[in-house]
Amino acid sequence: ENTVEIRDDEVQIEAVAAEIPTSPFKAQTTAVPPVTITTAFPFPTKMDIIKQFTLNSQQKYAFMIVTSHLDGENQIHTGSADNQLLMCVPGCGGTGKSQLIRGITQYFQITKRGKMLRKLAPTSIAVAEIDGLTIHSFLGESRKDSKKKQTRTFRPGDTKLENEWRHVKYLIIDEMSMVGLSLLARLNRIVKTAKHINSDIPFGGVNVIFFGDYLQYSPVLDRPLYHSCTSSEQITERQIDMQCAQKLISQMNCVVELSQQMRTEDLRYLELLNRLRGGQSTIEDYQLLCTRI
After folding, report:
1. What are the residues whose beta carbons fall under 8 Å from the beta carbon of 75, sequence distance 6 or more?
2. Per UniProt, which keywords does this protein have (predicted)?
3. Which tens digit of pLDDT belongs to each residue from 116-155?
4. Which residues, at least 6 apart from 99, have a Cβ–Cβ distance to it below 8 Å?
């Protein structure tokens, strides 16, 4: 009959075939080489990351949309022909936008797809929060000396540019309130150049997720993304860029608003912040702020 012998240091399996009564021959004993015992470590799941970063229900919803789209799950349909994700995650300060970005970044990294994600922001402070790159640095613009400002030139066939974006499939743009129409149009044009994609496809087919709050700082020397361009008799290159950027914004196919305040639970202070954000501060708000000084 079959026998199995188990030892502490290794596992040995010896299989002995049973004798078949109708056969005049006896089957040979088959010796199986020792099997090495390997301890399997559980792979972190989406729920593990949600717990690790303490994402609330709204953050979790946005997180699942991005990661499920990354995994190609069938239930995520954006409506575009190539299922491109053009997403916006708005929310006032303290609603956990940066924390959500960290959670999404973690999922890309633990699934060995970190090269597929690029994170950009208009300011160095915002970049430090999400461990990304400033948009102007990516564009090759130096702001240290405005008199000797140099702009990197991008042309089709730029090997360096193509290598930078070869593996990138997802782009996160933080602090969207400070990103102007002209700047977004330039970024769109450069990514298309890197990807060699039909000009009708936004961002060369790269999936883009915008984070920010339109009621925060507006762009410098540019028009905000919600600006409506009016037609004029004299069409300039700048106006064409802004109209192209407007078309990009109009093609957004997913919005998840973050409204739950995660930074503080002080009800009076929360109400103060909401009034301040809407430009409806009161004398009581001023007096409350004076108590913090």
Report:
1. 68
2. ATP-binding, DNA damage, DNA recombination, DNA repair, Helicase, Hydrolase, Nucleotide-binding
3. 999 999 888 888 888 888 888 877 765 554 455 555 566 6
4. 53, 54, 55, 59, 262
